[in-house]
Amino acid sequence: MAIAAVLAFASCKKDVRPLNLDLDPVNTLNTPTDGTDIKLQPATGASLVFKWNATKAADGDLVLYEIVFDKVGGNFSKPVYKTVSDGSGVQAQATITQKDMNKIASLAGIASSSSGQVKWAVIASKATNTKLSTTSRTLTIERPAGFAVLPAALYLTGTATEGGADVSKAIPLKKTSDGVFEVYTSLQAGSYQLTDKPDGTGTKYYVDANGVIQLGNSATTVSGAAKVYRLGFDMNVATTSSTEIQSIGLYMSAYNTEIGTLDYKGNGTWEAASIPVVFYQFSWGRDERYKYIVHTPAGLEYWGSEHADNVPPAGQPADYFYLLPVTNDQWSNTYKFDPSADNHNVKVDVYFKADGPYTQVVTTL
């Protein structure tokens, strides 16, 4: 039995061969061609495709690829950026977004609104064996204004702001899309900065005299009387916008006029303590529709419901009350007062705040 067991064990032993890690480096880079000029426009969402000739391993096994980028004087031993090729590293091409190309250019020392060169190569690998391509190519990249690394959050701080110079009281901005922020707030005489952290350790930005967002510890000066603004900051292209909010009116459709005005109370909030409401009498019944008009130096903005036709508010979800820019049509995108508001006064609150959807509340007094 012992002899049979030994023979059985011997028959189960596999033929063990050493792993062959030999492979050839990539010898040919195809596109983009050497010296290609690339003017980046990340907002278009377009991508660049880098292609090369596939190589092979000595035993025919799978080869994985990484594309690497470096400064012109570098040797790819410490590349500024690298990523696997398409298909989780198996394809002989890599698709790089313009957003990532902008980041690569920044890491290579190319400033925004400037041009410079980076070079790229390909690393082929099998297990622990890696081979850098025998050739590399150079690109000339023109970066747009803006920041390659976009802040995830943005705050307003300084003596001109509602929070004052204490950065822990910095005003948060609403992120409307990747790298784009806005805030409804007041500014008074003084100065302000932008930062991505309200604790003093964040990256700081300022708006220069031309309205361009710059990186640095300088500040933007505000003069004159205090006013309320909608401020916009697009970090993708380093541009700003500023719209003075002169007033907000409560507009009643049937009368085709504003029946009251809301006052700014700070922290992105407008309030009217008491507005008399009388539904309009038509032959078919009494009409209770309303929305809001925001007055700016550039003209009137109408804000109301996402729904063109609305039902009474009782029992409706929170999004019934959300505020969005809407048409100036007399009847469309309106809300409806609760029936209890007819022939009574109402308290009206409008919230353009960063911590949630813009919304409004009407309370019968």
What is the count of distinct domains?
3
Tell me the number of strands.
Answer: 30
Based on secondary structure, the structural category is: mainly beta
Beta-strand content: 35-45%
Radius of gyration using CA atoms only:
31 Å
Low-confidence stretches: none
Mean residue pLDDT: 92
Helix content: under 10%
What distance separates the N and C termini?
99 Å
Biggest β-sheet, characterized?
A: 9 strands, antiparallel
Number of helices: 2
| Shape field | elongated
Describe it.
The protein folds into three domains: 29-142, Sandwich (Immunoglobulin-like); 155-243, Immunoglobulin-like (Sandwich), CATH 2.60.40; 247-364. Helices cover 6% and strands 45% of the residues. The chain is built from two helices and 30 strands.
What's the layout of helices and strands?
Blueprint: H1 2-12, E1 29-31, E2 36-39, E3 47-52, E4 64-71, E5 81-84, E6 93-97, H2 98-107, E7 115-126, E8 129-132, E9 137-142, E10 155-157, E11 171-172, E12 174-177, E13 180-187, E14 190-195, E15 204-207, E16 213-215, E17 220-222, E18 227-234, E19 239-244, E20 247-252, E21 257-266, E22 269-277, E23 280-282, E24 285-287, E25 289-296, E26 299-304, E27 324-326, E28 335-336, E29 344-351, E30 359-364
Parallel strand pairs: 2-9
Antiparallel strand pairs: 1-3, 3-6, 4-5, 4-7, 7-8, 7-9, 10-11, 10-14, 12-13, 13-18, 14-15, 14-17, 15-16, 18-19, 20-21, 20-25, 21-22, 22-29, 23-24, 25-26, 25-28, 26-27, 29-30
